[in-house]
Amino acid sequence: MSEPFHYQTEFVLDRSHYEECFDESAKPQPGWRPYAKAMGFVVFGFVLIAMPIEDVIGYLFIGLAAVEGLSVKFRRPWWLWRQLMSKAANHSVNFELDDDGIRISSDYVNQSIRWQQIDSIDATDRGYLLNIGKGRSYVSRRVLNDEANAFICGKIKS
């Protein structure tokens, strides 16, 4: 019987970590589909302006459409800014990987993922995407040593 695997390290949730997380996990959606909600707000705003009610409500929806369109256009900087404004940003986190699962803990972050919860693991150029139900988590290879990488690759194959 082999000895149980355990790997532990510490890393900082800095800008480069968040950039890597976004770049490796965000699914790009080409075309006009990402802007559908913004276009719907614009149409609804013009409909409200055409109705015999206060125009302010229609302009509010048109303004909301502008904000939504900008959040789609500048999706990456918008997401990065929100992450960097969080309490956890620029703080150290403790990362543990073992036979039970993955644990990430700090003063602001406490996350535990058991291997049984993970539906699939996708290897990317710089890390691993853990698909958990409808959600996804990302583990960067730069925080893992060779043994930990091999351990996760073994979990992919099993």
Task: Produce the secondary structure layout.
Blueprint: E1 6-12, H1 15-25, H2 36-50, H3 55-73, H4 75-84, E2 92-98, E3 101-105, E4 110-114, E5 120-123, E6 127-132, E7 135-140, H5 146-157
Helix pairs in contact: 1-4, 2-3
If you had to describe this structure to a student in words, what would you say it looks like?
This protein has 158 residues and is an alpha+beta fold. The protein folds into 2 domains: 6-27 and 93-157, PH-domain like, CATH 2.30.29; 33-83, no CATH class. 42% of the residues lie in helices and 25% in strands. Strands 1-2-3-4 form a 4-stranded antiparallel β-sheet, with no helix packed on it. Strands 5-6-7 form a 3-stranded antiparallel β-sheet, sandwiched between helices. A hairpin with a 2-residue loop joins strand 2 and strand 3. The longest helix has 19 residues, at 55-73. The radius of gyration is 21 Å and the shape is elongated. It starts with 5 loop residues before the first strand and ends with a helix.
* Unreliable parts: none
N-end to C-end Cα span: 18 Å
Total beta-strand segments:
7
Instruction: Give me the CATH architecture of the largest domain, please.
Output: Roll
Category by helix and strand content: alpha+beta
How many helices? The count is 5
Q: Which H/E pattern describes the elements?
A: EHHHHEEEEEEH
Integer-rounded radius of gyration: 21 Å
| Domains (count) | 2
Domain YcxB-like C-terminal: 97-149
Transmembrane segments: 38-67
Protein name: YcxB family protein
Keywords: Membrane, Transmembrane, Transmembrane helix
